[in-house]
Design goal:
With 263 residues, the protein is of the alpha/beta class. The protein has nine helices and eleven strands. The strands form two sheets. Strands 2-1-3-4-5-11 form a six-stranded parallel beta sheet, sandwiched between helices. Strands 7-8-6-9-10 form a five-stranded mixed beta sheet. Strand 4, helix 4 and strand 5 form a beta-alpha-beta unit. It is elongated, with a radius of gyration of 19 Å. The two termini are 28 Å apart.
Length: 263
């Protein structure tokens, strides 16, 4: 069995990771963590996940031997537990978004010591979309305008989503564009479209789990590539798949394209 530690165990994703890991019976949850002072510390992780008593309390340290840490928390949670993984040679799955440049640099540096799978979105379908969007953009060429739109629930903190940015960056790599120069975040007032730019748009609506659409259009036709997540379980299953994949890998910074063999 794969021994996993869950960071952000009381969050929406953390609870579903615990529930599906217990259900799968291929994982041994050895630790469930939150930041010190969190109201759920001391509560049973199985009860939090809605699957009954599991016999493991949420804590604020990673003390038990683990194969993989799965982190869907906040940047401060990632930065607290990542040095522990580095010191103890525990592989990491990182799905936390909203990281600063310096925090990302620390993750990249840590990947020189342990294997890390980091992805803006762990959905298998989204990662196929990343590959498809890049191929379509390269094939259609510069005559097609590109717009990326995403919709998430009202509680999401960062915008645009990490997945929308990942889609735009994938397109930029395929077409030789610089993301920072090409991306335009929303529009207002007099702003005619410039050739080669990539429009980025974020909507926050109710309890929407996640919708992403890439629009390609010229003066004669429009192509739409999209993905809709119906539940968070699709991200959880991808993360658990990555956790099994990474156990025997060399140190390095991987993503779901590597896990799925899409490179």
């Amino acid at each position: 069995m794969t021994k996993i530690a869950i960071t952000g165990a009381a969050g929406r994703m953390g609870r579903r990771i615990a529930a599906l890991a217990i259900e799968a019976e291929r994982f041994d949850i050895v630790a469930a963590m939150e930041l010190a002072g969190h109201e759920t510390i001391g509560r049973d992780v199985g009860e939090l996940a809605g699957v009954g008593t599991f016999g493991l309390a949420v804590g604020d340290t990673l003390d038990e031997p683990a194969d993989v840490m799965i982190d869907f928390s906040l940047p401060e949670g990632t930065m607290k537990f990542l040095p522990v993984c580095r010191e103890r040679k525990i592989a990491a799955i990182i799905g936390t978004t909203g990281l600063t440049a310096s925090q990302q640099a620390e993750i990249t540096d840590t990947a020189g010591q342990i294997p890390i799978v980091q992805a803006a979105n762990f959905s298998v379908g989204i990662n196929v979309l990343l590959k498809a969007a890049a191929m379509v953009a390269k094939t259609l060429g510069e005559d097609y305008d590109i717009e990326v739109a995403e919709t998430h629930h009202r509680f999401k903190k960062d915008a645009p989503s990490g997945t929308a940015i990942a889609l735009a960056r994938s397109i930029c790599r395929a077409t030789g564009k610089d993301f920072e120069a090409a991306a335009v975040f929303g529009r207002e007032g007099q702003c005619p479209r410039n050739r080669g730019e990539i429009g980025m748009h974020a909507l926050r609506v109710g309890d929407t789990v996640g919708e992403h659409t890439v629009h390609f259009g010229n003066l004669g036709e429009t192509v739409h590539l999209g993905h809709t997540a119906h539940t968070r379980d699709t991200f959880v299953r991808g993360a658990l798949r990555a956790a099994e994949w990474i156990k025997d890998k060399y140190p390095g910074l991987y993503d779901m394209q590597d896990v799925l063999g899409l490179r």
